[in-house]
């Protein structure tokens, strides 16, 4: 079982303690939501896990199914990011196929897997020949998700994956990530400022405020009966968390 453990992680930018002693574990088949207002340090946590930012202190340990630490090169394959803006994360001159073939081949897999990858993210096979501008925002995010799956991802870090998409298609993309998590036994970190989707799409929630985790626990419990004053404040400011999911509503 591949697990990713974040242990006592901190990051200081100049004098700002952006992330302060954060610990949690991601395990297969579970989604952990990291919630908090803008500037609370969520993306910095994501970037440290993706190895885009070097921690000031602390550790990030990826352990394989054999119980051994995963080597550095394999870490890059196993831990994949999905970013907020799918347009910025795709090359406008490259076809969907090009975006997928490269990571497949780099990781010793065949380009003939492209139709299967597209099927996994519920896109038709002929989309392989399209370029990003020929896709909707939601379709582009599905391509970005397929690209994350291409090298054999086991851990997905989804940093505000739907906040730049039209409201009407957000639910579809979140449902896709949830299905992949379940069916492919992925460990998912879902970063969001939206408490309603965090509650609906995660098993456990970590509430972050000024770089620290101020409350954690089962999402349904923490987000309906918060104990920390900061979480209570966040929950009170959020719209009715259930309303958007009643009768097929869209988040
Ligand atoms: P969130 O994702 O919750 O909005 P961030 O992790 O992006 O929060 O930012 C946390 C804090 O760290 C903010 O005050 C932000 O300005 C600061 N910060 C993030 N990246 C850098 C950087 N590269 N240099 C200096 N400060 C940064």
TrEMBL record:
It holds the Pfam family ABC_tran. Keywords: ATP-binding, Nucleotide-binding, Transport. InterPro entries: AAA+_ATPase (IPR003593), ABC_transp_ATP-bind (IPR050319), ABC_transporter-like_ATP-bd (IPR003439), ABC_transporter-like_CS (IPR017871), P-loop_NTPase (IPR027417). Residues 232-251 are annotated as: Disordered. Residues 4-235 form the ABC transporter domain. GO terms for molecular function: ATP binding. PANTHER family: ABC TRANSPORTER, ATP-BINDING PROTEIN, TRANSPORT ATP-BINDING PROTEIN. This is ABC transporter ATP-binding protein. It comes from Lentzea rhizosphaerae.
């Amino acid at each position: 079982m591949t697990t990713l453990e974040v242990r006592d992680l901190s990051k200081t930018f100049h004098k700002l303690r952006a992330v302060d002693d954060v610990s949690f574990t991601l395990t297969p088949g579970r989604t952990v939501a990291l919630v908090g207002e803008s500037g609370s340090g969520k993306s910095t946590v994501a970037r440290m896990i993706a190895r885009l930012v070097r921690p000031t202190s602390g550790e990030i340990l990826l352990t394989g199914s054999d119980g051994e630490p995963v080597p550095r090169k394999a870490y890059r394959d196993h831990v994949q990011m999905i970013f907020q803006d799918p347009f910025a994360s795709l090359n406008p001159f490259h076809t969907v196929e090009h975006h997928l073939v490269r990571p497949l081949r780099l990781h010793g897999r065949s380009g003939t897997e492209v139709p299967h990858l597209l099927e996994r993210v519920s896109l038709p096979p002929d989309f392989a020949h399209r370029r990003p501008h020929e896709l909707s925002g939601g379709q582009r995010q599905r391509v970005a998700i397929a690209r994350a799956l291409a090298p054999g991802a086991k851990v997905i870090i989804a940093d505000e994956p739907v906040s730049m998409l039209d409201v009407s298609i957000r639910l579809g993309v979140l449902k896709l990530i949830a299905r992949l998590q379940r069916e492919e036994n992925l460990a998912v970190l879902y970063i969001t400022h939206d408490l309603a989707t965090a509650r609906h799409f995660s098993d456990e929630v970590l509430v972050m405020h000024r770089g620290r985790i101020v409350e954690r626990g089962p999402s349904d419990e923490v987000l309906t009966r918060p104990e920390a004053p900061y979480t209570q404040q966040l929950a009170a400011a959020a719209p009715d968390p259930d309303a958007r999911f009643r009768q097929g509503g869209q988040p």
